[in-house]
User: Fold these one by one.
Assistant:
Number 1:
Amino acid sequence: MDHLINFSFVFLVGFLGFLLFLKLGTPVPGFLGSLFAVSILNVAGYYPEFSIYIFSFLAQAAVGVMIGRQINCGFLFHLRHIAPSVMFASGGALLVSLVTGLSIYLLSDASLSTSVIAGAMGGIAEMTTFGMSMGADPMVILFMLLFRFIFAVISSYWVLRLISRLVPNKAASAAHPPAHSIPAHSINESGFRVRDYFLLPVVAIAGGMLFRVLGVPNGIMLGAMLSCGALAVCLRKTYQFEQSARHVVLIVLALVIARHITADVVAVLPRLIVPGLVSSIVALTGTVLLALALYKATDMDIVTCVLCTSPAGLSQIAFLSEEMGANPLTTSIFQACRLLSIIAFYPWLVIALL
């Protein structure tokens, strides 16, 4: 009971932050407003104890459910269509991570191993653990990853607004439909009935737990997404969520991230603020260049390309995709593969470099 009360208190703080940022008109207010408010609470030492894993699990599963509604019988066609682009973007993310890490090394007093690991685009828990196994400074890695993550979430919206004005939209081709649109074919889908919504959370939790046990990165979200998508395909139905549900999920995700922003992390801010800012700009510039290359090589629109290569978090990009008119499923596939490639291959690149 105490855990629920403590969570409710932190959620209330996050909700007030959301209302403030919503009033200010900032992008993704549910996430950024809550992150701002709860981070202050945590740094001040008033973040109460509760079992955060349960709420983190449910929030990640909810994101998976919301993206999974995009899956239909054209999903496999869609995967085959974008597979080369996904591999190109994932390879580019590895290169951008290395360049970002080298910029940290040149601008800070951190060791080469710490800097290169801190340059990774994703996997905060995985990269911090890997850094400790390599004798690197975990606090520097955690700070850099969190700083770049927050910077990317904030900047993505404004970069998208700017670049969508500078780069012309591509005309859709009948022979080659845009990669971000999933062909509907002759699917005759109906909406979920009330009883179907009782089955949805069971399937989502089961899929999330399975992928988590299998050790798949971001497995809770991906497991829930694929299992709920499979359920919708089997039932030949589709489902929707209210905007308010998305805000609730973003607030809970912000509470989880804010748990890492402690007084110790803030203490290294004066020493690492310049390397953090410059390396974040380097990472953003690299991913924008990667997005432009993807735009030239494919039939995807520029907004989708930028979201697919953004160094921000998978969950946040999924919600931002809907806000900016891109397909959340496409961006989630790119982001998930980027995360998988970073976790699977980046440590080997670091070991080879060192």
Number 2:
Amino acid sequence: MKELKVLHLASFNGNIGDNANHYGFYKYLNKINTYNFNIEELEIREFFWKKRFFDDNFIKLVNTYDLLIIGGGNYFELWVEGSPTGTSIAIELEKLNEIKIPILFNALGVDPGQGATKNCINRFTNFLDLLIERNDYISIRNDGAKKAIIDYIGEKYLHSIQYTPDAGFFIDTKNATDYYNSKEYIAINIATDMDNIRFSNLSYDEFLVTFKRFIIKFIKEYDNFEIIFVPHIFRDMSFINDILNILDDDIRRTKISVAPLLHGKESFNEVMSIYKGAKFVLANRFHANVCSIGLGIPTIGLINYRQIEELYNELESNNFIDIRIKDFDIELLNKINKYDYNNQLLEILESQYLDNMQHIEKWLGSKFS
């Protein structure tokens, strides 16, 4: 078995969905018996926080390893004007060419949701051209990335890019604690970042009032159920605080709980166990949807950002509602009452993911034979 010293550049703190994704990826990566992957993690947010830079020091660090993995994550955005690649991987192409080891871009999102300027598209195209010339491995995830490549970059590029489900579908997690096991509940995740996009049709205040109506109707119809709000990042606490402030006191004191906001490598396990114990999940963030579906829990996507809509389109599922429309509370309750469960979905996703892993193994063989 060949030893590979690997540097993994991704987000490991501040978003439990990322931690779940890495867990699923490592689980399948370590099934490649040809290699022993000795992985060291490098937090990508240190580059966003200007604590690190894609400079000579980064190149020198990377070249002390055998393999660089970047992602998974939503790092192929198309709006980052200050970046030489048009994305959050803000590395000069000349510097990229100084990296002497193979790079594996793992299940990245190509996201035009916050815009896609001509400059960024051109820079990203040049970036892809160089990666393809270097014969690096590029894979994109099932969040509309394939459609974005076709619409903004060109369908021909898909010949050089692998498509894969996000590894968050394949997490394992412990059972919910006795506290949650003693209850019947639905788990809800709501995101409020990018509010100018999420709430451009229905204002945030209107959204809050409508979601309050849904909670009241749900509790009236399912009077033995409770509701658990699940934050994935700190910004999710804003909605939780706002909805609690407008709910009647008897509801928020007797029917509402809030899951902990955790961070770090094993953080997903505790929080995802809450999804695992739920009778239903109402999910607004990408990994809140992906992981809940992967755990086999009936999940309804709450759409106010293109990424979630594209996820359900690619899953060929109608288990979502648009929360940008007036009176969405009515449709949401109807979706719960008439949920359409596809018991073959996970088999299909795993087959697609295994196909991607076979391509990774073949590519590694071409680099380290």
Number 3:
Amino acid sequence: MWVPVISTPALGLAALLLAWQDMPWLRALLAWLSAVGVAGGLMGTYYHIAGVGERVDGYNLNNFMVGPPPALPALVTALSVLALIALYLA
């Protein structure tokens, strides 16, 4: 639960600092934070989908609407993947 709370602002700060001044250790930090974000996002997506299935009636639309939102950890994963793409294509 704390991976997106801690790593996402740190990832954003590292990306801003890297845009301002290109340093090798900052590139390594951004790559590491992005990898942590991808792993945490995938794990969070799994746990959120499993949490929806544990509610009464399992996987129905109502449980997806009121249960843990699987889209949020998927967005953390997408943000981290995009940071890795930007890091290695720039």
